[in-house]
């Protein structure tokens, strides 16, 4: 049996951290990254990026940061527990360890057990009934620790991480924190995923508002809309994107959704002049996607006045970039998950991967993105209605906001989403494109249905 000095102790940090503790945490995190990687970094990022990430992590309500202090009060280990604070009761019953390390020079003293005991105690205190953890197969000591503490290895992901040019598998572990018979009481088997219900006009006064994001898709400097993501199926609507943005602002919208279609296919920003014109011509917050594949481009647009960037193909092909950007600009990076019948598509929807939308959403949540835009490509531009079932299922598997997209053609489609959002708090908005340009949807009426938040 390993005996540890009594002076080593584990504790949960609050929302602030002293300067000395921050520097100590930075030092220990860099040591862990160099030893085996942590927070999906295998080489240490710039110190200001890591510092911003750690400080931002403390401000996220759904994350608890734990540390281990050495006898001299320096920090020699840390872990992060992710849990739900606003999700439905069904999903608030689970918590996940998203990061865990003890610095190499303090191992062999039982500190991993000390840190894990604090995590388990916290998970039980917040009502979690199961505790999940995912580790790379290259970390046998971590897998052994989990097994010794009663975790069950229930699955293996064949493409969990990329280290250099090597693909590494991931091991999925879970531990029940309550007796099995209580775990089976989470939700009756016949409980539907979504329970439709009607509300009175008075009830709507307290309903959570949904945000309507009018879409401006750019191709060759003009506003267009595609059908099912096909560039050859583009309908031209306006040669003046800045003027179109202004019209949306004057109609009462409070946000804009812009996609550089040429950039999405080319892998780099292409409609630069049009986007710059929109930024200059409106005061609305803008979320921009399409061709954002490196930190320099992301920084360029955030500094130019874009409120949030949308990372789509990078979410699948370069998750390290997503994590780095989310750490560098907390709250300003969202993931665009575009799927064909549940399978994620990339490169402007030209390629379809084997990754499911739900799996990618969970990875993006762990990476620290501020939200997810979910689009079912087969419905996009078809005006036949959103894929509400997929959207609801996705929103119930993550704790970050989900914006619905693809297929809105009538006010009834918005009412259906409004009803689904009433029972699924994670759905926070919807993107509407072709139906606005074609006049199929009256914008003031749409805003009224979504309760005045656009």
Automatic annotation (TrEMBL):
One of its GO terms (biological process) is L-tryptophan biosynthetic process. InterPro entries: Acyl_CoA_acyltransferase, Aldolase_TIM, GNAT_dom, His_biosynth, HisA/PriA, HisA_bact_arch, Isoase_HisA-like, RibuloseP-bd_barrel. Its EC number is 5.3.1.16. GO terms for cellular component: cytoplasm. One of its GO terms (molecular function) is 1-(5-phosphoribosyl)-5-[(5-phosphoribosylamino)methylideneamino]imidazole-4-carboxamide isomerase activity. It catalyses: 1-(5-phospho-beta-D-ribosyl)-5-[(5-phospho-beta-D-ribosylamino)methylideneamino]imidazole-4-carboxamide = 5-[(5-phospho-1-deoxy-D-ribulos-1-ylimino)methylamino]-1-(5-phospho-beta-D-ribosyl)imidazole-4-carboxamide. The active site is at 217 (proton acceptor), 338 (proton donor). The keyword Membrane does not apply. The keyword Amino-acid biosynthesis applies. Pfam families: Acetyltransf_1 (PF00583), His_biosynth (PF00977). Residues 25-178 form the N-acetyltransferase domain. NCBIfam families: 1-(5-phosphoribosyl)-5-[(5-phosphoribosylamino)methylideneamino]imidazole-4-carboxamide isomerase (TIGR00007). This is 1-(5-phosphoribosyl)-5-[(5-phosphoribosylamino)methylideneamino] imidazole-4-carboxamide isomerase. It comes from Bombella intestini.
């Amino acid at each position: 049996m390993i005996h540890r000095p009594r002076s080593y102790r584990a504790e949960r940090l609050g929302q602030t951290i002293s300067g000395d503790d921050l520097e100590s945490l930075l030092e220990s995190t860099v040591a862990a990254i160099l030893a085996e990687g942590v927070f999906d970094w295998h080489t240490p990022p710039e110190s200001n990026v890591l510092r911003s990430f750690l400080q931002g992590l403390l401000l996220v309500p759904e994350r608890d940061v734990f540390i281990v202090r050495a006898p001299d009060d320096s920090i020699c280990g840390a872990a992060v527990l992710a849990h739900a604070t606003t999700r439905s009761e069904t999903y608030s019953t689970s918590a996940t360890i998203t990061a865990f390390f003890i610095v190499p020079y303090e191992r062999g003293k039982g500190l991993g057990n000390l840190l894990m005991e604090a995590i388990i105690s916290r998970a039980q205190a917040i009502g979690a009934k199961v505790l999940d953890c995912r580790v790379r197969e290259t970390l046998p000591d971590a897998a052994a620790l989990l097994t010794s503490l009663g975790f069950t290895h229930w699955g293996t992901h064949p493409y969990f991480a990329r280290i250099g040019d090597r693909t590494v598998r991931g091991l999925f572990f879970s531990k029940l924190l309550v007796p099995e018979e209580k775990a089976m009481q989470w939700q009756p088997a016949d409980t539907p995923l979504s329970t439709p219900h009607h509300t009175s006009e008075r009830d709507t006064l307290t309903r959570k508002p949904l945000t309507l994001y009018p879409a401006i898709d750019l191709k060759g400097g003009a506003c267009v809309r595609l059908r099912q993501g096909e560039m050859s199926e583009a309908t031209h609507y306006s040669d003046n994107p800045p003027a179109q943005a202004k019209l949306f602002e004057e109609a009462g919208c409070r946000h804009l959704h812009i996609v550089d279609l040429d950039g999405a296919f080319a892998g780099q920003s292409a409609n630069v002049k049009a986007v710059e014109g929109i930024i200059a011509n409106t005061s609305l917050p803008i979320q921009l996607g399409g061709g954002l594949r490196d930190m320099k481009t992301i920084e360029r647009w955030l500094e130019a006045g874009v409120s949030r960037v949308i990372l789509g193909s990078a979410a699948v092909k370069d998750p390290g970039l997503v994590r780095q950007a989310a750490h560098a600009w907390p709250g300003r990076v969202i993931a665009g998950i575009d799927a064909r019948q549940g399978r994620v598509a990339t490169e402007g929807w030209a390629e379809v991967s084997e990754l499911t939308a739900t799996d990618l959403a969970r990875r993006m949540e762990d990476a620290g993105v501020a939200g997810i835009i979910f689009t079912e490509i087969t419905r996009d531009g078809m005006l036949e209605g959103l894929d509400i079932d997929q959207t609801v299922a996705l929103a119930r598997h993550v704790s970050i906001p989900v914006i619905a997209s693809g297929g809105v053609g009538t006010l009834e489609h918005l009412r259906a989403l409004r009803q689904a959002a009433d029972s699924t708090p994670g759905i926070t908005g919807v993107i509407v494109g072709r139906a606005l340009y074609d006049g199929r949807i009256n914008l003031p009426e749409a805003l009224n249905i979504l309760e005045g938040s656009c």
